[in-house]
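Here is an idea for our session: we take a single protein and study its fold together. Which protein we use is up to you, so please pick one and set it down. Once you have written the record down, we can walk along the chain together:
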Amino acid sequence: MADQPPRRVLALDWLRGTVMVLMAVDHASGTFNAGRLVTDAAFLYQPGMPLPAAQFFTRWMTHVCAPAFVFLAGAALALSVAKQSARGDPPGAIDRFILTRGLFIVALDPLWMSWMFAPGQVLLQVLYAIGGGLAAMVPLRRLRERTLLVMALVLIFGGEALTGAALALTGGAPTLPTALLLTGGQFSRLIVAYPLLPWLAIMLLGWCFGRFLLAAGPTRAARLLVVVGVAALALFVALRGLNGYGNMRLARDDGSLVQWLHVSKYPPSLSYVALELGLVALGLSVVLRRAWGGPLVVLGQAALFFYLLHAHLLTLAARALGLAHRGGLAATYISAAVVVALLYPLCDRYRGYKRAHPDGWARYV
């Protein structure tokens, strides 16, 4: 008898929906907030620069978005492949879908998102990382989970050493290949904000978790997440305490809470990944233990649809109101709430359309 297709895990959707709301706050801040802080990289921060707490924590609380989104993309891929295999889809057809969707998602960054986030430039952000990661998973998914877990940990723990070696070999300035894969960087009008390999490592962790969830069930998966989450946060404390390797050269200036949490996202440091995935693991361990529904699940099941519309609405609204980069935190939070409220019914309708047409174009978004 054929294996039964796995049921959708609503806890993953709920967490993804929460991430979408936090992401809307960050992008609303980028659109409206005149005092927005973006200092989360060694090249963006000089020791002693002021980090006002309200502005800092508005930015910091959204740091979880990209790691959570990429981790959940890996977990969702594992569940999706299992579902497709259970219904009898041949491996080649599964590969073609993953590759086509991955390349489509990569193309959305330069073709749809860049002209809103960075007019006149080509900006490769999280969609490049996710789409490129999906394309890489076509061959990688055939490897054993233990092998993929080791690969992910090598990339995460060795990321700073690999980045330093790559820059040393290129004289301190990244080449385009090293920027696309490892370091990030700017080349005329092209900006690589999310290099592929550090984020692929997080997707690999998500894939491994998704496979474990399928094999062990949500209760055991939740227990594992508690252990992993506590260990990751302990690692974060150790790295920030030692203030050396693992911080991608963004060291603490002092012992204040702001400085402890001031970690490098560009490129992601080991301390950043440990902190954010530690929080993701503990949060997911809680939501896996009960059934979830409501608006956040709706947003989570239409996450890419929401992503592709929200920044454009925020930017157009800011321009129409004459508040682009001229408001403050009040404008940031109000505009984020408004854009979520406006897009929620559209996301609900899109989710219904996608369910009614499971093999149509909507499965790519």
The mean pLDDT is 96. The chain has 15 helices and three strands. Residues 1-36+293-365 form one domain. The CA atoms of residues 167 and 174 lie 6 Å apart.
